[in-house]
């Protein structure tokens, strides 16, 4: 079937998470993503993993997660001839994406003005940690650092513990979403005006925008959040909003549920003494402890059945492995896989959006380093002899199954 972004060509210089997730989302919708990696080592995420384990013995789960539906070419960006080739590629490209530190791409000759000089309609999306000017411009911008600076780590966890980082790289992933919506907006604007433009996205601004509820509350109510000492689910929330234990060692989350209705459903009418707005906030830790004692008298499944029957907003708290077996996840077909030449069958989460006429799909596995380099250069008129010369000089590399070594 036709894809929504079919015919859109993206030159993707990005690495790690923010930029690669953004371009993967565009690739899921049919854009031709040409991933331009460093000759030799490729994307930095190729050398990072969790648990000190590698998929198929050599491949990074982090890289595999954010780089499907792309073609890879691995080049030495400092080579004058490589720059000439890339600028030739840019003449029929629609979008450039990069997330190096500010100034790096300009120094190498790949800034917005460089691309605009050969293609006035180019859309150039630049991602950074803190923006492209200001006192933090030369600092490393990384997900956990942004969590600390923007307040979300200080708002997470219990009051008697240090600030807690989130269990996933949310600033990076929200940054990717901001890249995508800005790029798609720029494509629509270009369709109207014929003009390209430069887009600047940074992790700090993106995270703060997604914390707007918290900032509006603090700034307009003139009160800082204080973390609870219990399992209350937000530093500004009143009871019962939170996570509770069950007798069989599992947990349930209980969201915005009328306290009186919840207590009657649990058969804990004695706790109705807390049922006032003032107490539900001021005594929220005490209330959480009392409610937790009640939930600990139930096994998880019977508790969920009772609460859901009463239309209480509740769900089980699951780890990643058990979440994949959740009946709603199975019904939606969220878990899928693709075949990789080295890693074998890669299990993953499929595209999150459903479109009736132009569905997203996984059509390519995450590429090996420079896997498609010869084809990409041939498409732009580079003959076989020059391609061999680029490989021989080290200005271009190609990973194969045969030259891949297992990691210890």
From TrEMBL:
Transmembrane segments: none annotated. Gene3D superfamilies: Crotonobetainyl-coa:carnitine coa-transferase, domain 1, formyl-coa transferase, domain 3. Its EC number is 2.8.3.15. Keywords: Transferase. The lineage of its organism: Bacteria, Pseudomonadati, Pseudomonadota, Alphaproteobacteria, Rhodobacterales. This is Succinyl-CoA:(R)-benzylsuccinate CoA-transferase subunit BbsF. InterPro entries: CoA-transferase_III_domain, CoA-Trfase_fam_III, CoA-Trfase_III_dom3_sf, CoA-Trfase_III_dom_1_sf. GO terms for molecular function: succinyl-CoA:(R)-benzylsuccinate CoA-transferase activity.
